[in-house]
Amino acid sequence: MAVSLGEAQRMIDAGIAKAEDLGVRMTFTVTGTDGYPVAQNRMDGGNWITWDLNRAAGFTSAAFKRNGADLKLLENAPFFRSFANIHGGRPFAGLGSLILERDGVFHGVMSAGGSTEDVDLQVALAAVGAW
Fold first, then answer.
1. C-alpha distances in Å from residue 126, one per residue of 49, 65, 70, 130
2. How many other CB atoms are there within 10 angstroms of residue 34's CB atom?
3. What domains can you pick out in the chain, each with its CATH number?
């Protein structure tokens, strides 16, 4: 079962609160099991490119059902590059992308980005904590 709009918005709200505490402006994407957005939000002052990057990171994590950190280790592998080519270069491994899984069931992805990778991950973890 995919994450609901209400759940997605709660995670985004928690991510925004954490980002504000850290003084950064970020973008958040929550995808369903298909990798397409359930909800997406860019904070005021957030970099415009993070909209597309977060959507791509969420899509990629959903496609492989893996966190961004795991995908970073694979992004230079031939199969990953082939996947990226097939999908028009859209796939992207972002450290702030976390799969949403309960009791072994995949529900989607929370992706947070727009700062350093460490901050992206820290904010994403706070966002997933609201799920």
1. 22, 20, 19, 7
2. 12
3. 5-122 (3.30.450.150)
The whole-angstrom separation of Cα 111 and Cα 85 is 22
Rounded Cα–Cα distance for residues 85 and 93 (Å) = 14
Alpha-carbon distance of 108 to 75, in angstroms, equals 20
What would you report as the CA-atom Rg of the chain, rounded to the nearest whole angstrom?
13
pLDDT digits (tens, 9 = 90+) for 82-106: 776 676 666 677 889 999 999 999 9
pTM of the prediction? 0.88
Secondary element (H or E) of residue 109: strand 105-113
Write down the H helix ranges in the chain.
5-22, 49-64, 68-72, 78-86, 117-128
Cβ atoms of 28 and 19 within 8 Å: the answer is no
Q: How far is CA 108 from CA 64, 65, 71, in A?
A: 11, 8, 16
Alpha-carbon distance 102 to 91, whole Å?
Answer: 25
